[in-house]
Design brief:
Elements: E1 4-6, E2 8-11, E3 17-20, E4 25-28, E5 36-37, E6 42-48, E7 51-56, E8 63-66, E9 75-77, E10 82-88, E11 92-93, E12 100-101
Parallel strand pairs: 1-7
Antiparallel strand pairs: 2-3, 3-10, 4-6, 4-9, 5-8, 6-7, 8-10, 11-12
């Protein structure tokens, strides 16, 4: 299991965050441009002498990824080098690969109490229990 290392963060005059390499290494598995990230979200891997470490977003940083290289590239990163920028944005962010979760405007988000497998429908190819973004009744099954 790899160690989790928090990225170094700075802030530009326009409010954009810059994420800097906390150590020297090879940076890979970059977040995709446009991904929403928040505190604790994974932001790639930094490999040093064959040991891979998961980079995570620090507390106080939430927003959309800007200026990131292709996900298939591994890049040599110097200590303190800017890896990517995060433009602040109001949204709910999960810790899983920076997935977007739209903020609910007219209701509440449905969140699972535990990790596990989610089945959107009773069987492959069958209609979903409820569509994403649709209103669900109090006793209606969601998955």
């Amino acid at each position: 299991m790899s160690a989790r290392i928090v990225l170094d963060a700075g802030r530009l005059d326009d409010g954009t965050f810059v994420m800097r390499a906390p150590r020297v290494g090879i940076w890979s598995e970059h977040p995709a441009a446009g991904s929403l990230l928040g505190p604790g979200s994974p932001a790639g891997r930094l490999t040093q002498l064959g040991t891979a470490h998961t980079l995570v977003i620090p507390d106080g940083v939430t927003g959309e990824v800007e200026l990131t290289p292709g996900r298939d590239l591994a890049i040599a990163a110097a200590y303190g080098e800017i890896l990517f920028r995060v433009r602040p944005q109001a949204a709910t962010v999960t810790k899983e690969r920076g997935r977007k979760t739209p903020a609910s405007a007219a209701g509440k988000d449905l969140k699972a109490p535990t990790d596990g497998v989610f089945y959107r429908s009773p069987a492959p190819g069958e209609k979903a229990y409820v569509e994403v973004g649709a209103a669900a009744g109090g006793d209606q099954r969601a998955g």
